[in-house]
Amino acid sequence: MELRPPLAPRVPDALEPLEPATIEDEGRYEAVELAGAGELEARHITLTECRVRGALGGSRLPDLHLSDAIVAGADLANLHAPKAALRRTSVGQARLTGATLSEASLRDVTFSDCRIDLASLAAARLERVVFADCDLRETSFGEAVLRDVRFERCDLGGAELSRVRLERVVLAGCRLEGINAVGDLRGASMPWPDIVANAGLFAAAAGVRAADG
């Protein structure tokens, strides 16, 4: 199954520094590099053609708009950003443990080597999204819509997938032990060796038990 890949962000080489303390509600910031440390709190902000670094854990940004962005090595643990909109964004080696992105809209987004455990993407819409080498343990995708989404070498142990809707979704080399509502993976694609390796999990979900002897 061929998926449509995410579009890459367009970020200029020259960026103006932006300190967290200078962020204002309803602000729009273009061609900036947000670094430093601090908990941001703003009802609505827009960051475009930008780079995000630093320690911004615990920030409360309920209407965050992020486009043409590179998020590199940032600490965003416990970020509260429900209904956020991410477009053409690359997130690498970032920590999003406990982040809330419920009802968010993610389009053309790549997560690589990130911690996104204990997070919530419940009821989110993901289109052309890649998760590569990510820790997604006990993260909720309940009632989310995933279209053209690929999971590569991710740990999905204990993830919540109840009532998730999948269209052109691939899981390759992922750990699935303890996943919740595995039956809702119906429609996803996996390499044959992965299907064989997880045969016990799928059988248990279907109520099939191994016979003795």
Terminal-residue CA separation: 38 Å
Q: Biggest sheet, open or closed, and with what strands and sense?
A: 10 strands, parallel
Portion of residues in helices?
Answer: under 10%
H/E topology pattern: EEEEEEEEEEHH
Instruction: Give the DSSP E fraction (strand runs of 2 or more residues).
Output: 25-35%
Shape: elongated
What does the model show?
- The structure is a single chain.
- The chain is mostly beta strands.
- 6% of the residues lie in helices and 31% in strands.
- The protein contains two helices and ten strands.
- It has helices at 192-197, 199-205, and strands at 16-18, 27-30, 32-34, 45-52, 64-72, 85-92, 105-112, 125-132, 145-152, 165-172.
- Strands 1, 2, 3, 4, 5, 6, 7, 8, 9 and 10 form a ten-stranded parallel beta sheet that branches.
- The longest helix has 7 residues, at 199-205.
Could you list some keywords that capture this structure?
31% strand, 10-stranded parallel sheet
Describe the structure concisely.
By secondary structure, this protein is mostly beta strands. Helices cover about 5% and strands about 30% of the residues. Strands 1, 2, 3, 4, 5, 6, 7, 8, 9 and 10 form a ten-stranded parallel beta sheet that branches.
